[in-house]
């Protein structure tokens, strides 16, 4: 059975999250609910939960400090503030939940944790070399207009000069990370490169078609987008 800890300095919000998790993911055992960073660190080291839902702003040790002090426990940050997103990325968090959390967003988080569950191992059995921390979400937008986007909401990534364009359902966003650098941070079980300037989410793909000239295209399930599939990536992509 998978286990978790909740740390939030607001008892009512901690209780609400515990209730929502129990309702939406009854198989998850909540080992402890604490209200400060020091208690969170102590309970994580004592009980070894698989996951920790950590508020960021807590008395004493904050959630970031707790996350950087533990190993073998995957972290989800739960906060009312979006300015910590880049720090959460550096801490290899599995997800970043903004309060208030609705059921739909929590269900997406649960799905992400369930996918990560096979990688969760007891600390004593952890390999010497850490597993790669793939992106779960991305901070998109330029200037003061930024938002958090879960990678499983992205249809495809497209190189766009010095930026990368994220194609979502009905809209696009820009990030400053070059596509080549981004490719190394995406889970190869979820994403595949189909062109020098294109990476597609596999679950968004409907199929492949060829035109009369023999050129291959990847068809997406939503929006009717048709993306070029280059010969250099075709064989590997078709084998997936």
TrEMBL record:
SUPFAM superfamilies (UniProt xref): CheY-like
Tell me the ranges covered by the HTH LytTR-type domain, including all copies: 148-240
Q: Which residues form a coiled coil?
A: none
Gene Ontology process terms (BP): regulation of DNA-templated transcription
Question: What molecular function terms (GO) are annotated for this protein?
Answer: phosphorelay response regulator activity; transcription cis-regulatory region binding
Sequence ranges assigned to domain Response regulatory in this UniProt record: 3-114
Enumerate the InterPro entries for this protein: CheY-like_superfamily, LytTR_DNA-bd_dom, Sig_transdc_resp-reg_receiver, WalR-like
Q: Does the keyword Phosphoprotein apply?
A: yes
> Which residues does the record list as 4-aspartylphosphate (modified residue)?
55
- Keyword DNA-binding attributed: yes
Keyword annotations for this protein, in alphabetical order, are: DNA-binding, Phosphoprotein
Annotated Gene Ontology cellular components are: cytosol; protein-DNA complex
Q: What is this protein called?
A: DNA-binding response regulator
Source species, please?
A: Chromobacterium sinusclupearum
């Amino acid at each position: 059975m998978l286990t978790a800890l909740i740390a939030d300095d607001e008892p009512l919000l901690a209780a609400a999250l515990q209730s929502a998790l129990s309702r939406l993911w009854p198989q998850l055992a909540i080992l402890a609910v604490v209200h400060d960073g020091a208690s969170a660190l102590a309970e994580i080291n004592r009980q070894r939960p698989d996951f920790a839902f950590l508020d960021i702003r807590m008395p004493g040790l904050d959630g970031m400090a707790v996350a950087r002090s533990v190993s073998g426990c995957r972290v989800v940050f739960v906060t009312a503030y979006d300015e910590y997103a880049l720090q959460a990325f550096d801490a290899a968090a599995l997800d970043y939940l903004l309060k208030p959390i609705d059921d739909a967003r929590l269900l997406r988080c649960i799905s992400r944790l369930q996918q990560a569950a096979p990688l969760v191992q007891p600390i004593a059995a952890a390999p010497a070399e850490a597993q790669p921390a793939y992106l779960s979400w991305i901070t998109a937008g330029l200037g003061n207009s930024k938002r958090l986007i879960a990678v499983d909401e992205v249809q495809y990534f497209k190189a766009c000069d010095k930026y990368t364009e994220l194609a979502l359902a009905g809209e696009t966003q820009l990030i400053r990370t070059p596509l080549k650098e981004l490719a190394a941070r995406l889970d190869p079980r979820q994403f595949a490169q189909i062109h020098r300037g294109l990476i597609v989410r596999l679950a968004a793909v409907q199929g492949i078609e060829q035109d009369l000239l023999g050129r291959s295209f990847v068809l997406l399930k939503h929006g009717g987008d048709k993306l070029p599939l280059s010969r250099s990536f075709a064989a590997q992509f078709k084998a997936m």
